[in-house]
Amino acid sequence: MSESEYIHKSHNVSVLLYHFVCPAKYRRVVVSKEVDKTLKDTCLEIEKRYELHFLEIGTDNNHVHFLIQSIPRMSPTQIIAIVKSITAREVFRKNPKVKEKLWGGEFWSDGYFVNTVSKFGDETSISKYIRDQGLEKEYVVLHQSKQLVLF
What is the mean pLDDT of residues 34-46? Predict the structure, then answer.
């Protein structure tokens, strides 16, 4: 796996990492060595044109995992829209048999999974890191939620 880096912009420094899981349309088994190569090559070309860095790309028959670093200006929705639209077009162009398997339709299903990933650890270690930053005064927790909320 490639290593994430601090991205320095004029008014911020960031390390934003996202794990995306994108299933193929109808969960069909369409990922092959040829499709793998197309996905990898296309993603590396996307890196040259957008502020996205692919730290890892992995496939599993009917879905693809992307570990992507980006900048605060780009939302996860924007990131995955770019990735899905360009990769689908290129997969169909370079692998016409895939389009047949999907009845001439779309490559990706409409949905996806996204999760933020930390370079520095899980919630507990990050919370400890924040508490340990106080130099002169005690760190005071103003709010802490122990319950995950489903939206």
Answer: 92
Which domains, from first to last, does the chain contain? 7-127 (3.30.70.1290)
Strands 53-59 and 63-70: antiparallel
- Residue range 78-106: average pLDDT? 88
What local confidence, expressed as pLDDT, does residue 138 receive? 64
**Residue among 78, 57, 53 at smallest CA distance from 66:** 57
Tell me the C-alpha to C-alpha distance, in Å, between residue 41 and each of 46, 52, 66, 112, 150.
Answer: 9, 14, 14, 21, 36
Instruction: Give the H/E segment covering residue 78.
Output: helix 76-94
CA 41, CA 61: separation in Å to the nearest integer?
Answer: 18
Average pLDDT of the chain is 79
pLDDT at 1: 46
CA atoms within 13 A on the CB side of 38: 20
Q: How far is CA 147 from CA 1, 35, 144, 150, in A?
A: 32, 41, 9, 10
- 33-49 vs 76-94: helix crossing angle, rounded to 10: 130
Burial of 121 (0-12, 13-18, 19+ CB in 10 A): exposed
